[in-house]
User: What shape does this take?
Amino acid sequence: MPRKKTELNQIVLQMLKNKILERSELVLQRSIDCDVLADMVSKETKVYINGITFKRLFGFTKYPFNPSIQTLNILSRYVGYLN
Assistant: This one.
């Protein structure tokens, strides 16, 4: 059974993406950079996130992506928010 679609404010999502890049000090130019970012976030938050999540989030794959609440919470914690 597929999970319920997450309601997202695209402006807030873009702000989160910008803060992730700012915090990581990475420039995502190739899809392999998403794997590096995933490793950084996983080490910092102590929660594993796959590189494909970042590839989808930052548009390196043409897969319609709607991150789960859990993923958004992990990413929010990475940039300094509670959730």
